[in-house]
Amino acid sequence: MSSPAPTLIASAAAAQPRWSLDDIDWGSLRPSAVAESETTFYLVAAASFIEATTDLYTKNLIEYFSDDAEITEWLAAHWLPEELQHGRALRRYVELAWPDFDWDGVYRRFLPEFAAQCADDGVEPTRSREMASRCIVEMGTASYYRMLSQLTDDPLLTRLTRQISDDEVNHYKHFYRYLRKYQAREGQRRSGIARALWNRLMMIDGNDTRIAMRHIYRARHPEGSFDERIFRRLRRAARVVIRPHFPHRMCVQMLLRPLDLPRPAQRIARPALEAVARRIVP
Ligand SMILES: [Fe+2]
Ligand SMILES: [Fe+2]
């Protein structure tokens, strides 16, 4: 398994995330609001798996910026502990809301397949492009958790996902600041930034989700097989639930910002980006 360098782990251990699991009122769960919602279950369980694996794809990123202490220290001391905490918090939520689901057992079957895929993950050819790509990841997660906080009637899930979404927005702001720093240093043109954004957008809703969904589905339906038809059915059902709650405006603003377009060009680009956001992120 990939992992950050030991000195960085030490500084991560000393850092305090902005909130902890002890700050959450776990007793405020309203089981009737979520117990029967298959879509909410898949959305939260898949997110808990992917967040819990953040350390698998951290090593590439830390190595890529190894001579930039400001970035590597922030990644190890703040970003990574916060992402792993998202995984732990969502796991506890899944175990409370759907106690029949064997989180640990399913995660142990999911992890080797997911880890093998992460080993193929590359980085963008320049640092500014890599930071633009990271902005898109954080845009995706910030929007996803904002959507979850708005679609559920469970007060616990609303508060938890709102808190996680705020962390993701904060991560976006850091990656955006580092994007500007390296864009100025490298003289990276807007077309290269747009390319990096596009590359990452094409990866959203891709194999990560599919692997998580397959393992979660198999745990629920041990007799059935998970094929493309099942995946499309689950995704269609999720889209129906998600669509009215997805924060498309926030998503478009976060897409536009790295492009740093002049105002008239923003007006022209906005409808196209909205269409992209609606197509790629439900
Ligand atoms: Fe996260
Ligand atoms: Fe994040």
Overall description:
By secondary structure, the protein is mainly alpha-helical. The protein has one domain (29-280): Ribonucleotide Reductase, subunit A (Orthogonal Bundle), CATH 1.10.620.20. The protein is built from 13 helices and no strands. The protein has helices at 6-14, 31-34, 38-52, 58-64, 69-97, 103-118, 127-151, 155-186, 190-201, 207-220, 228-242, 248-256, 263-280. Helix 7 (127-151) runs antiparallel to helix 8 (155-186). The longest helix is centred in the middle third of the chain and has 32 residues, at 155-186. The protein starts with 5 loop residues before the first helix and ends with a helix. Mean pLDDT is 90; it is low at 1-13. The site of one fe (ii) ion has 6 residues, from helix 5 and helix 8.
Summary keywords:
mainly alpha, 282 residues, 73% helix, Ribonucleotide Reductase, subunit A, binds fe (ii) ion, disordered N terminus
